[in-house]
Amino acid sequence: MTTKKPPVPVALLMLIGIIAISFSAIFIKWSSAPASVQAMYRLLFTSLLMAPFVRPYSGALVKLRLNDWLLLAASGFMLALHFLLWMGSLEFTSVASSTMIMALEPVFIMIGSFLLYKERSSVSAVAGLGVAIIGVVFIGWGDIGLSQDNLKGDLLSIFGTAAVAVHLMIGKKLVARMPSYLYSLIVFIIAGAVFALYNLATGTAFFDYPPKEWGIFALLAVVPTVFGHILFNWLLQYTSATTVSMNILGEPVGASILAYLLLGERLTGLQWGGGVLVLGGLACYLYVGARIATREEERQRSYMQEAQVLPENAS
């Protein structure tokens, strides 16, 4: 991990990012436009904001191979599928339920990493994610008591979370050989194009929306995307990925508080209990991951120190 310091304390920037992404579900709930239209303009406006700063990465752009473009297309498609399913889930279930379920992203990544790369996790990490899964069952059980639509929303959120996990796993492979900024911009453009084709195929209106909706589209691009996700990506140069990933825990908490204050949403005791299990299990998982990462960093540092000592002794 780099020792550079950002112009603003990391903790403050993390708080700003968590608050920003917590507003995502609120803006979606406020909008009456179809989820596919909200997502399309969110991605389009974000791409327009990013495009003026892409020139330094033009050299990397021309070096992309056909296989890279195919992976970028797959990543963009999965990101579009994530937005379509997760944003659609908010039409049927509460903000708290949907965002708490979406926090299960590490579960799907762990399963995918094991199936594709044979990466194994510690028993403690698996136990933590197991507790989180039990929490999701509690949330779903509580939603069944409210209505069948709530359960439908929970299922859409689960599938949307699986889609974004695939998107992130593809991205992990691509950013190892291309700038993350360029990767994000290309994927946003591809996902936006997927939504444009989807809306065209389904006959969904592109422009017939009141000024309020256009304001929400812009807010979705600026607040949760620029001051949320892009800010977190920028913070990776100043702090560890494990620290940045703590926003997974912050979003459902922040979104639930905002939904209570701004939307009047209330949860049952069973749902709150499930939420506590989800966040507690994920906290355990991230804590174990941080310990493993620290040990690996210390092992590499020790190895480098020994490598420097050996030539001196030989001389």
Account of the 3D structure:
- The chain has helices at 10-30, 35-50, 58-62, 66-89, 95-102, 105-117, 123-144, 148-174, 180-202, 211-235, 241-244, 247-263, 269-314.
- With 315 residues, the chain is an all-alpha fold.
- The chain has one domain (10-117, 148-265).
- Helix 5 packs antiparallel against helix 12 (247-263) and helix 5 packs parallel to helix 13.
- It is a multi-pass membrane protein.
- The chain crosses the membrane at residues 12-33, 39-57, 69-89, 95-116, 123-141, 153-170, 182-202, 214-232, 244-263, 269-290.
- Residues 11-140, 152-285 form the EamA domain.
What is the approximate shape? globular
First-residue to last-residue Cα separation: 32 Å
Level of helix content?
over 70%
What is the chains' assembly state?
single chain
Structural class: mainly alpha
Radius of gyration: 21 Å
> How many extended strands?
0
Total domains: 1
Question: Unreliable stretches, pLDDT < 50, 5 or more residues?
Answer: none
Please state roughly what percent of the residues sit in beta strands, choosing from under 5%, 5-15%, 15-25%, 25-35%, 35-45% or over 45%: under 5%
What is the topology?
Elements: H1 10-30, H2 35-50, H3 58-62, H4 66-89, H5 95-102, H6 105-117, H7 123-144, H8 148-174, H9 180-202, H10 211-235, H11 241-244, H12 247-263, H13 269-314
